[in-house]
Amino acid sequence: MKKIAAYGVHLLTATGAALGLWTLILIFEEAYQTALWALAGAALIDSIDGALARLVRTKEYAARFDGGLMDNIVDFLTWTVAPLFWIYATMDLPFWVLLICATASVFGFSNTRAKTDDHFFLGFPSYWNIVVFYIFLLQLSTTTASIILLVFALTTFLPIKFVYPSRTSFLRKLTLLLGSLFVIQLLALVYLFDRSPSQLIYGSFLFPFYYFGLSFYLNVKTIETSA
Q1: Closest of 39, 15, 1, 210 to residue 130, by C-alpha
Q2: What's CA 113's distance to the chain center, in Å?
Q3: Cα separation of 214 and 169, whole Å?
Q4: How far apart (Å, rounded) are the C-alpha atoms in residues 194 and 63?
Q5: Does the first or last residue of the chain, that is N or C, have fewer Cβ atoms within 10 Å of its Cβ?
Q6: What is the rounded radius of gyration, in angstroms, for the C-alpha atoms of the chain?
């Protein structure tokens, strides 16, 4: 039973790849809102498979497959390739900007120190799904959107720690609470799509501001401690 559970978690993780491919097909068919639901499903799997893998001890009972490598492969598809293709299809941003983002993301996912021992992400953790969705909702100009994307791509290479919501211990309960509210807001935005009211869009910025603010604070705190 333990082996079945362990391999079952690997299968769950691998399902994200199917959702990623489905997303690309939906984008090709111009079903842009449905494509976001497919990405939301992949994000849900990504949010629980790590904890499940630790619970059923996949490294011990399903060691034939590298769960971490599998997760990175699926995440690159669902958190980078699919969302960048989505924003290209919906807003026709310069393809060279998106190529830079994809290239930077490869370095991010292959970085052996991308997840630190104290449970942070090192460098921008390729949250392209969220970035491009807000670019779409706010209908930013091509120039502004390109600058934002390039800044995040650059941040992938910088030694900046970003909060790992489910594992960073500092204010974890508050982070999870606000993160849960953010997920509800995002689902509402996906449901309403291009009919999303500005109050909901701007109200949903609470968690991103908190997330980046907390990450900045903890980076400064680390520097002061080591000084």
Answers
A1: 39
A2: 17
A3: 12
A4: 45
A5: C
A6: 18
Contact between 85 and 130 (Cβ < 8 Å): no
Residue 43: closest CA among 92, 78, 3, 6: 78
Give the model confidence (pLDDT) of 1-51 as tens digits: 888 999 999 999 999 999 999 999 999 999 999 999 999 999 999 989 988
Tokens matching residue 177: 């609470």
Alpha helices in the chain (DSSP H): 2-28, 32-56, 58-61, 67-75, 82-91, 95-110, 128-138, 142-155, 172-192, 198-203, 206-226
Instruction: Give the integer Cα–Cα distance in Å for 14 and 8.
Output: 10
Cβ–Cβ under 8 Å, residues 154 and 104: yes
Got the DSSP string for 199-214? HHHHHTTHHHHHHHHH
Cβ proximity of 176 and 165 under 8 Å: yes
Tokens 């991103």 correspond to what residue?
208
